[in-house]
Design brief:
Elements lengths: L9 H18 L14 H10 L9 E5 L5 E5 L2 H27 L4 H4 L4 H10 L5 H7 L2 H20 L5 H6 L8 H11 L4 H8 L8 H11 L26 H8 L6 E7 L10 E9 L6 E8 L2 E8 L7 E4 L2 E7 L5 E5 L7 E9 L2 E11 L2 E2 L15 E5 L7 H8 L5 H7 L8 E7 L4 E6 L2 E2 L10 E2 L1 H8 L2 E2 L14 E4 L20 H10 L7 H8 L5 H10 L8 H11 L10 H20 L3 H10 L2 H10 L3 H21 L3 H4 E6 L13 E6 L10 E2 L7 E2 L2 E3 L1 E6 L6 E5 L16 H6 L3 E2 L4 H7 L2 E5 L15
């Protein structure tokens, strides 16, 4: 899923949405106050699973469960493996699946009531499900059978399980049938263009007189433009200073748990590993929610034998390990959308959407559609100019075959096989890192992309003609530079800018390259590496830019007043790590939190500071702007910021005292009722762009981390059973179940769970097995493919 500071405000938004949910629930019969389930053990939960009648399996099926409720499916046919996956996904994550289905469908008001009407209208206008019918029509027979089997398994479980998860009462969910279209739609939710967040935040500023200079400076911050802006007039204060209505952030926050927003992925070749075989490490960066986006599973079927991580509701491994290779991915932050000004073009059609609303009567909303895509400016929630018709031209509106691609990647034997597998893949853009059993490693840029100029664009919104030129030829993975193995001994991706020789501009906004630089730095520190070394890299909390900023700015600070000098001396001794026991990390946070707004206020560009803060570029931009000021003025600002940090030196505040996360269900942060869903609150290590990423707001107040490393994977290709995983939270989404959040302690400590690939080792290690007998080679599911 990219860097990902853009989600650092999600906790505030979640609280607002929580309040909406509470008010609506009170008006709708207090379903959110339904009694919580009694605590249940793993064995009791498995017994619930085993009480449902057996589905119509063709042959015998065994589902092996380990102590953490990780399932390994052993099936004699591929179809039966898919049915079993449907049972398992529904058993572990049914409430989460139903919630995600309603988010992607613009049915949030069914859960949250009338206040979510405008969010639903915006989601319907964007049209995340728009391409789903065409995608279903294009599926090859094998994929169609797979998704039919999965859908049958989900619905079989839904029809027979009792009780339903607490989510159904709390969120007012009906137990309607699951469809194959719902699974494909969840994939489109994960494919939402991560540039939308940044672009929506910039749109209100686009009409200001200083916009050209501001847009130019954003290009500079991305390294896309030369620093000289002599020909561009200086910026004036922007609308961001007047706190515009930003209801669109509430919508983005709902997408956050599902969007594949970031990650680290790195591999070491057999030439550099201690075992002589390739190694791989993956740690996705997403919203830190319980249930986790992922569930860990294993499958052994005739055409698929793999272990790895699947998104709840999608029967495909996104990262993992088979007999021949291991793979992972990071979000490319791919530029998959044009906002097209189609004012005056005409020829629009009108779509009408019926919205059910919890606690109130239904309503109807409309939006128009052009040949360039839906007119998203029709949605009042979205911050487009009111006097213009703006269409969204998104690759996700076109049919593509990500499910088949993911299934074929899990069957691949070489990097070349992966490249063939992803030919029909489009969104979201991914950098797939792989490690082969023969010791080779590589990376494949996986996306479809319009053929655009490689320079920084002139504006956020383009003309129809400009968009048509770019979309006349849509490039695929084979048109992009690729590394298919045997070229390097270490390789890493951390949402950094793609390769320089790409034939088109692949993205707008990227995080700083701190994480990828630090990964290469640590991997280069030893001649021979093992999985423990890769694990240590995943847990690293050193902040390259932040530590560099401190050393650069405090060179002259020891000559300031006594209070500032005292803090500068302590801050200069900081080792640059964001560990939970670090006072230096708090001093840095206090220093920058005071310095940045004071600096941009002095520059008369206060609105710009917020955008750099959210994009993750703020420390670099602060250093750059200070270097352009007279030295005495810069030192005055630095002195004031050091003095502001003094109380945190005096009281010894540690990073873990302020950088924290609630462990609990989705509604944990809702006012009034959140406490009943909260299991624990823990300190979190890491910072905004450390390898062990944990993004939070730039504040010294105690705050909740909303985004960061929420799972980890490690594999050593010398041993098919040397595969290790951990989730923030746990496998079982059933509230108060033993495995609801039991991996959190492991996750916080950097520990993992071994998940073997060989079936003999699975049978030995997994303590419980559920066996099903087959009823013969029947198929009763063709009706399940429906939009």
């Amino acid at each position: 899923m990219p860097g990902d500071a853009l989600y650092s405000s999600a906790s505030t938004t979640t609280r607002r949405l929580g309040l909406v949910a509470v008010i609506t629930a009170l008006a709708a019969g207090c379903g959110v106050l339904a009694p919580l389930p009694e605590p249940t053990t793993r064995i009791e939960r498995i017994a619930t699973f085993e009480r449902i009648p057996p589905p119509p399996f063709q042959q015998s099926v065994s589902i092996h469960w380990d102590a953490y409720k990780i399932p390994f499916i052993e099936a004699e046919t591929d179809y039966d493996a898919a049915v079993a996956l449907g049972l398992v996904h529904a058993h572990l994550r049914l409430g989460q699946m139903e919630f995600g289905k309603r988010v992607v469908s613009g049915r949030i008001a069914e859960m949250a009531g009338p206040p979510a009407t405008q969010i639903d209208a915006a989601v319907r206008a964007i049209g995340l499900r728009r391409a789903v019918p065409e995608i279903l029509d294009m599926l090859p027979a094998e994929t169609r059978a797979w998704i039919e089997g999965f859908t049958l398994g989900v619905n079989h479980y839904k029809a027979h399980v009792a009780p339903l998860p607490h989510d159904f009462a709390a969120l007012g969910l009906d137990n309607e049938p699951w469809t194959a279209a719902d699974t494909i739609a969840l994939g489109r939710l994960a494919a939402a263009d991560l540039n939308w967040t940044a672009l929506f935040s910039l749109l209100p500023q686009r009409t200001e007189p200083g916009w050209p200079a501001l847009w130019h400076r954003f290009g500079e911050a991305q390294g896309a433009l030369a620093p000289s802006i002599a020909a561009v007039p200086p910026a004036t204060p922007t609308r961001a200073e007047t706190a515009p209505d930003e209801g669109w952030r509430e919508m983005i926050a709902l997408f956050a748990p599902f969007a594949r927003a970031g990650s680290n992925s790195f591999a070491v070749s057999g030439a550099r590993s201690a075992t002589g075989a390739a190694l791989i490490a993956n740690d996705p960066h997403l919203a830190l929610t319980v249930p986790n986006l992922w569930l860990v599973a294993g499958v052994k079927a005739p055409s698929l034998h793999a272990v790895g991580m699947m998104p709840a509701g999608i029967p495909a491994f996104v990262l993992g390990r088979n007999e021949h290779l291991a793979w992972g991915a990071t979000n490319m932050r791919h530029w998959a959308t044009d906002f097209v000004d189609v004012t005056g073009q005409g020829g629009f059609t009108v779509e009408r959407h019926h919205l059910e609303r919890r606690g109130l009567w239904p309503t109807t909303v409309e939006n128009r559609v052009s040949r360039w895509g839906p007119i998203v400016s029709d949605a009042p929630l979205l911050p487009f100019p009111e006097d213009r018709d703006i269409a969204m031209r998104w690759l996700g509106h076109l049919p593509s075959n990500e499910l088949t691609a993911l299934l074929d990647v899990a069957r691949a034997e070489t990097g070349a096989d992966i490249l063939r597998a992803v030919e029909g893949y489009a969104v979201p853009g991914q950098n797939i890192v792989f490690a082969e059993a023969d010791g080779d490693i590589g990376m494949i840029l996986t996306t479809a992309t319009p053929s655009r100029p490689t320079g920084w664009p002139d504006d956020i919104i383009v003309s129809p003609e400009e968009s048509d030129r770019a979309w006349e030829r849509v490039l695929g993975p084979r048109d992009l530079p690729q590394s298919l193995g045997g070229e390097v001994d270490v390789i890493a991706s951390a949402n950094n800018k793609p390769v320089a020789d790409a034939p088109t501009r692949l993205g707008w906004f990227f995080p700083r390259d701190d994480r990828v630089r630090r990964i290469y730095q640590l991997l280069g520190a030893k001649e021979r590496l093992d999985l423990d070394d890769l694990r240590a890299v995943q847990l690293d909390t050193y902040a390259i830019t932040e530590h560099g900023l401190v050393r650069a700015l405090l060179t002259d600070a020891l000559a300031l007043g006594p209070e500032a000098t005292r803090v500068a001396t302590a801050l200069s001794a900081w080792d640059g790590h964001f560990e939970t026991d670090s006072n230096g990390a708090v001093l840095y946070q206090a220093f920058l939190a005071d310095l940045a707004p004071a600096l941009y206020a002095a520059l008369d560009r206060a609105g710009e500071e917020r955008w750099h803060r959210e994009s993750g570029q703020l420390p670099l931009e602060v250093a750059r702007e200070l270097s352009g000021l007279p030295s005495d003025r810069a030192l005055d600002l630095i002195e004031g910021a050091l003095e502001a940090a003094a109380p945190f030196l005096d009281d010894g505040t540690r990073w873990g005292d302020i950088h924290r996360i609630d462990v609990g269900y989705l509604l944990t942060r809702a006012p009034l009722i959140g406490a009943r869903y909260r299991l624990d609150e823990i300190a979190v290590r890491g910072g905004q762009e450390t390898v062990a990423k944990s993004a939070g707001p730039l504040t010294t107040e105690p705050h909740q981390v909303a985004f960061g490393v929420q799972s980890r994977h490690l594999s050593d290709l010398s041993d098919p059973n040397a595969n290790y995983f951990v989730l923030f939270g746990g496998q079982d989404g059933f509230i108060n179940a033993e495995n609801f959040a039991d991996q959190t302690t492991l996750w916080a400590a950097g520990d993992t769970i071994q998940v073997p690939l060989e079936i003999a080792e699975v049978r030995r290690r997994f303590s419980h097995t559920t066996d099903f007998a087959g009823t013969g080679p029947t198929r009763q599911d063709s009706h399940l493919i429906q939009p």
